[in-house]
Amino acid sequence: MKIKTILSSTPVIAFIGFWIFAAILYGDVFYMAEQYSLFAFDQQIMEFILDQPGGKLYWFGRLLLLSYHEPWIGGFLMSVLLTGTVCLVRKSFALQGKWEWISLLPSILVLWYLILKGQNLYYQQEPSVVFLWPLAVFILAALVSIAFHFISGKPSQPVSSSRWGQGICGVLFLGLYLYTWTGKENERITASMQRAYQEQNWDKMIQQAKQAKQPTRNVAAYHAIALLQTGRLLNNLLDIPYQYPDLGLINRGGLPDDGTDLYLSDCCLSSGLVNTAYHQAMERMVIDGPSCYTLKLLFFCSLLNEEYALANKYLYLLQQVPFESDFVRKYMPLVANPKVILEQPFFNRILALKPTNDSFEQSYRSPLFIGYPITGNHIRNQQTFDVSMAACLYTKLLDEVVNRTRPYKGKELPLIVEQAVVLYTYLQKERTTNLLSQFQIRPSTIQQVENFLSQYVKDGKVADELIPQLQEEYGHFYPFYYFCQNKIDEEQMKRYQILMKGGVN
């Protein structure tokens, strides 16, 4: 009976509830905050933090954040802090019986704040706040408890927890979980995909992306990387919808940000633009300071550029970071060993896509991992063809799609390409005489495109109110994507106008 009473007490319920959130539900977000941080005991390495106002506080916060290298450990440590706050608040204000649930509120509000920050927990912000806020509230609760101890004198007689109070505790946690699961779906999925990207778990990334009801650009970008790495880019490009919601991110200058820097370097690297990825990662390190995530990316770029001395320096820095020794041990044998590098599927695909000639980045539309492939003078193998074709399909450049179909003359086109070509013949009838006769076009595709155009497309567009109804049936159909998805959101355009440079949505 005594064990049952302990297990049903508010502190135990709080600890379990906090751990489920901090280790399981939001564990990947906090893990990515740890990866976007950097901590070492070497003061010279940490000079960029220690020299800031409040640098020692950030240093300590980053030390605590190391625990999230394993989310279950980080979740345990955070739960201890939050549960400690619950106990201190309960003791300070003598909250017992049906009022015990009130002691959860300060800790719940801390988590609510961290949830509301979303990707800004680690995107262009100081990631140590993950632990500094729970720690600050714990210290404040401790000070209040000490003050009340001297003021109030004798402690009140203990009263057992009431079921009503326990029920409210359950409702508080349930509300927290539901909001995190639904309201912050894209933030959770993006962090999970970034972690899977580090692990090169492409199938997990693809499955994660499919779970998003309305994926953001971040989710779409990492989904494309996974499809590229598994050779499924053209076959599965339309597996997710493309009408991006606003993430509400804030950049380091306090201005609205569309989150491009979150995935830009990874997409450039994965599409073979190693030097561009190098440039973006170096820029991020100069402005935001070094992080584990950025150092790993810089290592990959220097390794693929055969800058082995530089690659060793990045590995040395990572070796000074607790818990990063596994990464160093895994990749150390690849340094100055091109044959072993080529044996790695991840690096092999990147090198197959690497440009063969130099040119200025400013010559292409942004982002470059889309702007470069839509130029048609670099296709030399199947990988570059798939990336180039996918970029043209994504940007709705049907002229360029048709120009890239020459290798398929007399053959069957990939289904999404076939749908785009048939659509092109209806949109540009005067320029496409006998175009379809050059390929083995499925009659069913012609009929589907014709039916879609005649039923739903009026004056060159589909009515907005019809789009949700058509999503389920036509979600994998290119004409639906062409007319109904990846449309410019005027409100977002105004919000991010400062950042816009005539690039691709």
Automatic annotation (TrEMBL):
Spans through the membrane: 12-33, 72-89, 101-119, 131-152, 164-182
Q: What is the lineage of its organism?
A: Bacteria, Pseudomonadati, Bacteroidota, Bacteroidia, Bacteroidales
Q: Which InterPro entries match?
A: DUF6057
Recorded protein name is DUF6057 family protein
Which keywords annotate this record? Membrane, Transmembrane, Transmembrane helix
Pfam families tied to this protein: DUF6057
Q: Which domain of life is it from?
A: Bacteria
Asked if the Swiss-Prot or TrEMBL record annotates the protein with the keyword Membrane, the reply is yes
